[in-house]
Amino acid sequence: MFAETRTYDLNGFNAVSAAEGIQVFVDVGEAFSVVAESDDVAQLDRLDLSVKQRVLVVQMESKLFTLRRKKGWKITVRISMPEMITANSSSGASLTVDDMEGSALELVASSGSKLQVARLSGDRLVVTSSSGSSIEGDAGSCETLKAVASSGAKIDLEGVECGKAEAIVSSGARAVVFADDAIEANASSGGTVVVHGAHTSIDINATSGGDVVFP
After folding, report:
1. pLDDT of residue 69
2. Where is the Putative auto-transporter adhesin head GIN domain (predicted)?
3. What does the pLDDT look like over 26-48, one tens digit per residue?
4. Measured on CA atoms in the order 212, 119, 87, 26, is the torsion positive or negative?
5. d(CA 65, CA 151)
């Protein structure tokens, strides 16, 4: 079966929000382009793409949850954009980004979704993962990092070398961070923080089965 491809005339966004099990790939540094493909034309008809407050929202029509449960969404969206400062995945979506650079960057994943960024470079980086979701940054650097993981979620930023880092984990979540200058780590309720780097200043608090590890 041949895949159906559709192009969307959308621009003016610097953030992407992906939801509902859709697979999304983003190339940063190129002109605006949004292309969706699927071997199920009926699913493409139900794809809902819009730009709201400079965020490209990728989701399905909200009234069609029954179809999603029975079949699952089999849609891939490929996006090109000049810059990206916020990435958000939710509800089982998979969001893959090649590069994010800026003074302030934000990554958010929730509800079993997956967010992966090949390179991160910024002054301030805020990363939040919850409800069994995962966030991974392969490489890069930042001046300050705040990483928050809860409810079995995972954050892996070992390859992103930051000066100062604050990590807060709870409820079986896990965060791996790199801090060269200072680390403030709080782990509770079975959560684990793993700290790489020189971290010349250390402030840790582990309660209720939480753990802070320095490998």
Report:
1. 46
2. 13-197
3. 999 999 999 999 998 988 999 99
4. negative
5. 24
Asked whether the whole model's pTM tops 0.85, one would answer yes
The confidence score (pLDDT) of residue 70 equals 47
Residue 4's pLDDT is what? 94
Residue appearing with tokens 């010349």: 200
Given a contact cutoff of 8 angstroms between Cβ atoms, the answer to whether 185 and 195 are in contact is yes
Helix (H) or strand (E) holding 175: strand 174-188
What pLDDT does residue 63 have?
Answer: 62
- Give the mean model confidence (pLDDT) for residues 77-100: 98
Q: Which tokens hold the place of 99?
A: 């590069």
* Domain annotation for the chain: domains and CATH numbers: 1-98 (2.160.20.120), 99-215 (2.160.20.120)
- C-alpha 18 chain-centroid distance: 10
* Interatomic CA distance for residues 39 and 42, integer angstroms: 9
Burial of 70 (0-12, 13-18, 19+ CB in 10 A): exposed
3-state DSSP of 51-96: EECCEEEEEECCCCHHHHHHHCCCCEEEEEECCCCEEEECCCCEEE
d(CA 159, CA 191): 21
Instruction: List the one residue out of 10, 36, 32 whose CA is nearest residue 22.
Output: 36
